Amino acid sequence: MKFNLKFLLFTLFICTISVAQNKGTISGVLTDKEMNNQSLPFANVLIKGTNISANTDIDGKYSISVNPGSYTLIFSFLGYQTIEAPVTVKANETVTINKTLTSGEGYALKDVVVQSSAGNRQKESALLLDQKNAVSFKAAIGAEEIARKGVNDVANAVSKVSGVSKNEDSGNVFVRGLGDRYNVTTLNGLPLPSNNPANKNILLDIFTTNIVDNIGVSKTFEAQNYADFGGANIDITAKKFSGKPFVSFSIGTGANTNVLGQDHFYLQDGPTYTGFKKVGVPDSPLQPYSYATSWDRQENKNILNAFYTVSAGKRFNINDESSIGTFVTGSFSAKNKYTEGYSRGGITSDGDIFSDFIRTSYKHSTTTTVMGTADYKINNKNSILFTSLFLNSSDQDYSEYEGTNQNFDGGGDALQQITGFIKRGTFERTQLIVNQLTGKNKFNDQWNLNWGVGYSMSNSAIPDRMQNSFVYAPNGVDYTFFTNSNINNHRFFQDLKENEIAANVALSYNFKKGNDDIYKGKVTVGYSGKFKSVDYNMEQYSFFPNRTTISFPKEDIHHVDNYLDPAHWGSSYSNRINQLYNGNLDINAAFVNVQYSLTDRLSVILGARLEQLTQNVFYITTTVPAGDNSNDSKFNILPSLISKYTLNDKQNLKFSASKTYTLPQFKEKVPIIYEDVAQAYEGNPNLYASTNYNFDLGWEFFPKAGELISVTAFGKIIQNPINEMFLNSSSNDISYANTGDKGTVAGVELEFRKDIFEIENNNNLKTKLSFDANGSYLYTNQDLSNDKVNNENDFGANFTFSESKLTGASNFLANANLSFLNEFREGQDFSATVSYSYFSDKLAVIGTSRVGNLVDKAVNKLDFIANTSLTKNLKLGLIYNNILNPTFKRVQEQGKVPGKESVGDITAVSYKAGSDFRLTLNYTF
Q1: CB burial class (10 A; 0-12, 13-18, 19+) of residue 12?
Q2: pLDDT for res 858
Q3: How far apart are CA 420 and CA 409, in angstroms?
Q4: What CA–CA distance (Å, rounded) separates 380 from 363?
Q5: Taking Cα atoms as reference points, which of 379, 450, 536, 497 lies closest to residue 190?
Q6: In sequence order, what are the residues at sequence separation of 6 or more whose Cβ sits closer than 8 angstroms to the Cβ of residue 871?
Q7: Could you give phi then psi for residue 4, rounded to 5 degrees?
Q8: 3-class secondary-structure state, position 549
Q9: CA contacts within 13 A on the Cβ side of 361
Q10: Which of 527, 583, 730, 874 has the fewest CB atoms in 10 Å of its CB?
Q11: Are 43 and 77 in contact (CB under 8 A)?
Q12: Are strands 99-101 and 24-32 parallel, antiparallel or unpaired?
């Protein structure tokens, strides 16, 4: 019996080998005629009359094993003409069938076989193929990768890209150490307005990722892009419909660990849970009791975070050639945070602290987003995309500061006299409306037209900020109001409106067709313009209660309404401060790009942008009550060069050089003093633009679909860089200046994506473990010139050091992700990702008068994301963010100041943000 079993197994083994050896193979490459015969990934190859099929890989390659015989192959891709090809297969032989797909002319949509995801730029592998085929430098993160890494907003998504970091608790991102002023944010290639007077760009964390198809991060300048650029052009591509019709609902809940650790959670009175309410100025704003909202904090019971999303999509066929793909999504999120730590200001060179508080902060933020896209395919050569976006974001921050301030003048002993308590409630709300129309027109194989026009409206308001300050009463036991300046007890209203019209048009002509039907060259000429108007207005009503008649026990600090009523107000007084600015930024540019393949391996793009720029601002401030202007107008000629050398079918060398500029922002040019509790900022009308010279050299290696190894060296020379600096004053206020003649940036970026293993069973179900990481090393240096600042401005400088890093620059950045996927049956799977990020110390503010630099210390971040498809329709997700919960710390580096080494570093700001966990449930019909 034993012998018979062995004989049977041996016979089966021989038969299996015989059958395998009798099969033949069909393989080949599919190319895309619409993309100048580049490889076409994710297309479908089907053996007619069977269920045997394959999808092309990232390089457009496919392979199918079949028994000997004659067959017909069907090649298809959504939006392209389906073609068939006969093939005869012989045993143990490989037949090569290469084909080129085209959109064709006059074919019917119903004839297209849909087997793969069309134009799937949400997929990591498709975006990598884009990067491989492009002559220019490209980097992007798509919806697939965003979901895998558990990212909820665009700011965190962008920070996963090599060389990009994000400020803790902020939507500001830094690219290669360069912050907000050096970056450009666009939606579908058209610019977006700012939502904050302190920023050039809209804060990216207000964009939820459910609107995103992919996010491109271009760190090199191309002539068709806006040239106010030094770090990156961050382009959000709005999601469009593809695939089958669907309706999807998602609901989630979670919490912040710091919030859960509090017995009470407080917010200011007035704003609603959803963040839509806007409080107006009352009829009698100089009376503290005339306001509809209380001066006192209110307890909030809604401490859990909440997330809701609904999305739907469908394509409507109009006729055989025309269709409209529609996609709509709406979402609402509400998140709570609590932090506690140091908030210090006015730190002297000897280490004395002018303002030394412990700050406790309660925060409630919301985002409501509604977006719709309509993708109208007129025919195979013409299409139009309409995008409409509405966004409402709000941030409530109720903070209490307890500690000492040298200006305090309370009663009691020496320490009590400088001890006090401050409470401030701030509600910020932004509403953004964007409407865009973009189109593509193909006249023939040589002439193409791309165009776009957009209108954006942004309204950012601080409706009803309130602050009270308290010191010890003369008896040293009770408390009273502190009334030293306008900021101590006030109501504040701010309104910023930005309206922007933008238009892009690009006409391209392909020339010099070779024997292989591939055009060697392309000329693109076009126009790029934007017209922004800015209108800022602030009103502050300051109150000075009569301290000789008002005092109360400490617990009544939270019952101020009882003491700012008509009965107590009496001989107290108040005043009004109104400051404003309005301005415009107009850009008109013509550009030309010439792309040419000098050889089969070497391609270049020569570009030039001719740009007329006008930036005007008029302002009325407390220091300039009669009003004044700060106007600039300049014509720029901005050249660019990009080249690509293909080493082989898996490796590229790329080089880029360009000239760009960096404008100062409106707020930075207006001499308004912006006062926070522990720090004040003042604009400078004498600021002017920096000039940037940019260089990149990169090597890319694509081992297989979805994998990448790349190394990029880069450098920048920045003439007349703009920086934040301390003014020469006892209070150490911060202003802005062109602080030197030159800044230098140099560094290297590495990126690595690798499938550690991938196992596929007979049912085409996969088990996969993948790893990706990127890291950047950055060197920055700039000279600091006292004479330059003194000669160009109305204030002087006495820099502590003669040179420094660029503000916002970290020497080292890193991201790493380990992902596991297990498909255990059709429509059911489990995936998990561990995500790590790190950035080293970065300079925040440049020190003067032997005061050290303010530096943000290094931060580590660890996240865990898990998702499972319980059925084809039902998905469950778990996200645990900021597991390590590191301390965010900003220090004044006195230890590095010559002669002040013994003082050491002094903490200016510190807190822990807490960990966030979230559970989500998604159902798709």
Answers
A1: exposed
A2: 92
A3: 9
A4: 51
A5: 450
A6: 827, 828
A7: -65, -40
A8: coil
A9: 24
A10: 730
A11: yes
A12: parallel
Token reading at 591: 């550009």
Q: Which of 35-44, 53-62, 246-255, 497-506 has the lowest mean pLDDT?
A: 35-44
Contact 809, 177 (CB under 8 A): yes
Q: Give the 3-state secondary structure of residue 58.
A: coil
Task: Output the pLDDT for position 35.
Answer: 59
Quick one: which H or E segment has residue 147? helix 143-148
Tokens of 917: 């966990």
61 closest CA partner among 92, 99, 117, 11: 99
Q: What is the 3-state secondary structure (H, E, C) of 249-312?
A: EEEEEEEEHHHHCCCCCEECCCCCCCCCCCCCCCCCCCCCCCCCCCCCCEECCCCCEEEEEEEE
At residue 414, what are phi and psi to the nearest 5 degrees?
-60, -40
Distance, C-alpha 810 to centroid of its chain: 18
d(CA 38, CA 135): 12
Say what percent of the chain tops pLDDT 70.
Answer: 92
**Cβ of 109: how many Cβ atoms within 10 Å?**
18
Query: Whole-angstrom Cα distance, residue 656 to residue 696?
Result: 5
Strand 184-187 vs strand 233-238: parallel, antiparallel, or unpaired? Answer: parallel
CA–CA distance, 908 with 623 (Å, rounded to integer): 29
Q: Are 799 and 743 in contact (CB under 8 A)?
A: no
Strand, helix or coil at 181? Answer: helix
How is residue 333 written in tokens? 């999120």
Which residue type occupies 64?
I
Place of tokens 């200001």: 345
Locus of tokens 């820099």: 799
Amino acid at 426: T
| Planar angle of CA 515, 520, 523, nearest 5 degrees | 140
Select the more confidently predicted residue: 272 or 320.
272
Looking at residue 130, the DSSP 8-state letter turns out to be H
- Alpha-carbon distance of 588 to 185, in angstroms, equals 18
H/E stretch holding 481: strand 479-481
Q: For residues 792-804, give the mean pLDDT.
A: 89
CB 486 within 8 A of CB 575: yes
| Pair 397, 426: CB distance under 8 Å | yes
Average pLDDT over residues 628-638: 93
Check residue 733 and give its pLDDT: 81
The stretch 429-456 carries a mean pLDDT of 93
CA distance 756 to 758: 7
**Which has the minimum average pLDDT: 142-151, 182-191, 433-442?**
142-151
Q: What is the per-residue pLDDT across 110-164, written as a single tens digit (0 to 9) for each? A: 222 223 333 455 566 677 777 787 888 888 888 777 777 666 777 777 777 777 7
Q: What global pTM score does this model have? A: 0.83
Residue type, 559: H
pLDDT per position as a tens digit, 696-716: 999 999 888 778 899 999 999
Both structure tokens of 247: 């309706």
Ramachandran region of residue 791, left (φ > 0), alpha (ψ -120 to 50) or beta?
alpha
The conformational region for residue 905 under phi > 0 = left, psi -120 to 50 = alpha, else beta, is: beta
The DSSP line for 438-466 is EEEEE-SSSEEEEEEEEEEEEEEEEEEEE
Angstrom distance (rounded) from CA 117 to CA 44: 10
660 CA to centre of own chain: 21
Location of structure tokens 């309370």 = 410
Q: Given a cut of 90, is residue 448 above it in pLDDT?
A: yes
What gap in Å lies between CA 669 and CA 738, rounded to an integer? Answer: 12
Q: Taking the mean position of all CA atoms in its chain, how far away is CA 331?
A: 18
Query: Comparing C-alpha atoms, which of 85, 69, 73 is closest to residue 22?
Result: 69
Residue 320: the pLDDT is: 80
Radius of gyration of the chain (CA): 31
**Structure tokens belonging to residue 5:** 């079993």
